[in-house]
Amino acid sequence: MSERFEQLQAWVAGALQVQMLRLEPISADASFRRYFRSLVGPISYIVMDAPPPQEDCRPFVRIARLLQDAGVHAPEVLAQDLARGFLLLSDLGQKTYLDVLKADNADALFTDAMGTLIRWQLASRAQVLPAYDRALLRRELNLFAEWYMARHLKITPTPAEREILEASFELLEDSALAQPRVYVHRDYMPRNLMVSAPNPGVLDFQDAVYGPITYDIVSLFKDAFISWDSRQVDAWRRQFWQQARQAGLAVQAFPEFERAFDWMGLQRHLKVMGIFARIHYRDGKSGYLEDTPRFLNYVRETGRLYKEFTPLLMLLDSMQSRAQKGMAAT
């Protein structure tokens, strides 16, 4: 048992005013955070261990309050030790959307998720959360070039290929920045939504920003760990657009919204490919990289719809071919 775990256990026992308790590990995510569940009588609690200096609990605490004020079912922070990175939270349940999603319940679950997202977006105010600006969009896109292309595929782009990347990145950034701006959860996907009452419970929101209105909805329907038929995604996308309009959100006309959704997804999918490669090579967590083919499929599906991204698709095909030849040579 590590010294940090003993400190965490003692802190939780003091916060709950009990002599003894057990902390059962429940998950570790792509960051340095760890989560535990503790049962005291009939009440279940969640404990977050977010070790400084790698993690900072303050955004989580602040955004949890913003979500609750917006009418979103987010964890209540029951006790905190920000200096050591310890949080005691209410427990929103034991099943995520990803655990239970099937064809026969997806409509109902996603309808709830869309309603919750719209409440969150309606509460948006400028200058409360960090801006999802061009610099941040570019840092994210550069993860694809730095970690997926260079580190994973071992590809050094030619000057012409760099121009293709630059032009594609600028198109995606321009589209994102032209959208109506709202609060963005930034990881609004089935693994971070809990089946709960009220449904859903929302987790993993500490990186929230103020940015493009399509970001969270494309994250929901084009997920890292589960894929849906394109016709089903189209139907859900239109449902969200209609509900958002009726609620008074400043969504674009549907053709513009549809394109913004697709291009926002393309930005996210390139970013996630870079993140998954970084998690593998830097952090030693290999499982994420196995889902890269799903994101390649998303990129190809979207890219085929827009001639602007034909050069990017050709570059992707060239990179994959060169990487395979490189592996064969070794």
Layout of helices and strands:
Elements: H1 3-16, E1 24-28, E2 34-40, E3 43-49, H2 58-69, E4 77-81, E5 86-90, H3 97-100, H4 106-122, H5 134-152, H6 159-177, E6 181-184, E7 193-194, E8 201-202, E9 209-212, H7 215-221, H8 230-247, H9 254-283, H10 292-303, H11 310-329
Antiparallel strand pairs: 1-2, 2-3, 3-5, 4-5, 6-9, 7-8
Helix pairs in contact: 4-8, 5-6, 5-9, 6-9, 7-9, 9-10
Q: Your description of this structure?
A:
With 330 residues, the chain is of the alpha+beta class. It has 2 domains: 3-90, Phosphorylase Kinase, domain 1 (2-Layer Sandwich), CATH 3.30.200; 97-329, Aminoglycoside phosphotransferase (APH), C-terminal lobe (Aminoglycoside 3'-phosphotransferase, Chain: A, domain 2, Alpha-Beta Complex). The protein has helices at 3-16, 58-69, 97-100, 106-122, 134-152, 159-177, 215-221, 230-247, 254-283, 292-303, 310-329, and strands at 24-28, 34-40, 43-49, 77-81, 86-90, 181-184, 193-194, 201-202, 209-212. A 5-stranded antiparallel sheet has the order 1-2-3-5-4, with helices on one face. The chain has a two-stranded antiparallel ribbon with strand order 6-9. A two-stranded antiparallel sheet has the order 7-8. Helix 4 runs parallel beside helix 8, helix 5 (134-152) packs antiparallel against helix 6 (159-177) and helix 7 packs across helix 9 (254-283). It is globular, with a radius of gyration of 21 Å. The N and C termini lie far apart (42 Å). The model has no long low-confidence stretch (mean pLDDT 93).
